[in-house]
Every structure is written in structure tokens, then in C-alpha cells.
Amino acid sequence: MHAHTVNWREVILFGLLAYSLAWVWWGFWLFPYLGTLLTQPTTSTDLPAQSAFAMVLGMFAPMIAALIMRLFVSREGLKGSLGLWRSWKNYLAALIVPVVFVTAVVLIVQGLGLGAFRWSEAGWLVYLALMLKTLPNVPFTLGEEYGWRGYLLPRLLPLGEVRASLLVGLIWGPWHVPFLLAGLNYPGVNFWVALLVFCLTVVVLSFAYTWFYVSSSGSVLVVALLHQSNNTFADNFWQPPLMSEGSQLAASVVGSVVMLFLIVVVYGIFKRPVRVEDQERFVPPKQDGTWRDWVH
In 3D, which of 111, 134, 252 has the Cα closest to residue 194? Predict the structure, then answer.
């Protein structure tokens, strides 16, 4: 069986592009407030509206980096790179699974006495409204996923799903440092605490996103929907007005522990198998941009 290796040159160059494009852009907008951001916990409301909006635009940096790599460096082109035509079941699962997960974490947090949830304000209409809110916001997470899962992950998958997911998570997490400084995640929380919790959360989520990417035969769009659904429900269920003040950090930690347990079950106890359909077809990346399975 022919073993395929990782093209570390492409991995490193993509990472440098994704970081530099985002951090230069974000740095331009955050520089006037850097002293405040570095010395005290902040919230997004501490920044002018145009700066907060500019931070969101920076989420497209991984997509721009991936486009540059696909067109000018690795040159596999763009054909099939979104993974659009997939079963409706893939998309439905990507929309619903985060809803179930976030709700389960709320129950655990409340059961442990770490926060109170206002169930009276979270009827089925709230669930429906948040699902509808998820769909038009998918382009924002697609800006990230086209890079992290659409370009970086396939190049690391020869290492196996576990190591590939871990590496993507470790690269993906610190990329959000400017976001954390600006208080867009965990507003009002000490930066170093926020960074630790956020990176833990991102690493464990990386495994779930890998699972969906693989199960959908390499659909970036499915993972972008999963990512946005998770963001929408976590952002609304784990903080006021639905969750009590200061519960977001606790919910993130509990969610990470639950996800870590699921990772151990899926990859440790059940030994999720490596997909091998035709080892001779795995030449990452395929030149026409479509999906290929991989082998160790």
C-alpha cells in the first residue's frame, strides 16, 4: 500500500497567508485601541461600529488564502471545492446536531448549578427563529471553512483523522487572538482565560468538523453550515438573556468536556475506521478539485 505524505510547504504557506491577511487587516482597525485591549477585559461595544464590522470581514482571510494557494501555488483549481451537491441528510444533520448539543450543554450547566436558563423564553419558536437566522449567515463561516477544512484539512489527513484534527485545531484556535482581544468572544473575560478556554473549545470542535467533512465526502458547505449553526445557538443559548450572566465561560468548558468524551468514544472505544476505497486514487489534492479518500 502506497503511503502518501503531507506537503508541509503548502501547509506552512497557507497558514502564513491565513494569519498575515487576517492579522494585518485586524491590526489596522485595532491599533488605536491596543493599549486598552491589552490591559483590561473588553467587549465588542468598546469598539466603534465600523471596527467591529471590520473584524467580521477578517473572517474571509482563510478563504482568500485558500484561493491564492489553489490558483497560484498548489494549482488544483476551484472546481468542486465547495462540495455543494451532497445529500440533504448531510445538511440537515449539520443544522440540527449543534442544536441538540448546545441544548444538552445547557441542561448540564443548569444541573451542575453553574448557570440558570430561562426555558420560558426558549420555546419552539426561538429554535425555529435561530435556525432561520443560521442560514443567511453561513457565508461568514464559509469564509473560514473554505480555508481550514477546504484546504488545510485535506493536506493533513494523510496523518489520520485524529492528528489532522488536532493540528488544524491548534492552527485555527490562536488565529482568533485579535477577536478575543476585541471582546467578540467571551466579552469582559480576562484575555488569557478567554484564550485558554477558546483554544480548548476550538480543538475539540475540530474533531466534529473533521467528522462532518469526511462523512459528507469533503463538503466545505456542509461544515460551514455546521459551524454557523453551532455559533448561532451557542451565542444565543449560553449567554443573556436566555442564560444567566457570566455563564458563557462555564458552558464552553462543559461543552468542551462533553465533546472530549465523544471524541474518546468515537476514536478510542469504537475505533472509527480509516476510509479506504481505492488507495491508488488518493493524490492530494486531486487536480480537478473533487474529493478523494486517503490511506495511512
Answer: 252
